[in-house]
Amino acid sequence: MIDRVHAMRVFTRVVDTNSFSRAAESLGLPRASVSTTIQQLEALVGVQLLARTTRRLNLTVDGAAYYERCAQILADIDELESGFHTGEDRLRGRLRVEMPDTVATSVVVPALPDFHARYPHIDLSIGISNRAVDLVGEGVDCSVQLGELPDSGLIARRLGSFEHVTCASPAYLEEHGTPATLDDLAGHVAVNCVSDRTGRPVDFDFEVNGKTVTVKMPGFVQVTNEHAYLACGVQGLGLIQPPRIAALPYLRSGQLREVLPQWKSMPMKVSVAFLKTRQATPRVSVFVDWLADLFERSQQMEDALTKLYGAARRPLGAAPRAPRASRASDARGENEEAQTADEG
Predict the structure, then answer these.
(1) 244 shares its domain with 339
(2) Domain boundary at 31, 59, 82, which?
(3) E-assigned strands of the chain?
(4) What is the pTM of this model?
(5) Residue 52 domain boundaries
(6) pLDDT at 84
């Protein structure tokens, strides 16, 4: 008789590695054994789980649903068993995390060697997206989220905040000029970044006299990916307003130049959310604590680099002054239904 738990582990490993050979190698099993286990599992559940071609593996619709449930069941089993261990023995197993692209590439991924050195028996599965994640339905242990969190019954821990920076390439500024006030934005174009949450372009926002002023920018390019957004800015396709931590390498190299430094964007909250039932999960607990410490150190580093960059940067144009009331009023009128903080 097939060992269902073993078969689930084999199946999820095949999906995670997208390869029978790699799954077999990581599990220390013969490839033929892995293939036989998947066939037996499909016979047991009565549906095809994987669509096999000569080049790749694809989950069927049933396979995708089965994978999510398997991941959750295996995580629960690991958690149950870890409760009977003490100390470092409890910190093992698989941890599924979702986070936005900027958080992953600018903060978390560069620090993963440190996490692995501290917790060598925790296997991380990191999904990259800005979408709202169904932690229960998708079997995700925790998710890093930007902006205000909905009242979803999740436990949320504040990690820090992201400041956005308004910038453009030297080539763009040479051709179109450098805006000195918010009113000057009327003569410029932007690369528009589409929100995963709303499906609409995210407006530029600025803090003016303690209030948020949003400015809808025209443009001929829309993207949905942070890397593409930065790349478009570097190529001179328009003004952009990315998180400063993501733009810093380009600002330091001179590929991008900050404009309108007098008016900062409203800081965007960064939080990590997880289920109440997993509050005491050792793996989740140590990962969340590690994230909080990592963000604190990253924030300090970002502040130091920003000050260093600001001291070296040549002063720009006019002294800070508030935009004309008509422009600020127009901007508010155009976007009174927009929830800028949530769209980031």
Answers:
(1) yes
(2) 82
(3) 50-52, 57-59, 93-99, 122-128, 142-146, 155-162, 167-168, 191-193, 204-208, 211-215, 221-223, 257-258, 268-274
(4) 0.63
(5) 1-82
(6) 65
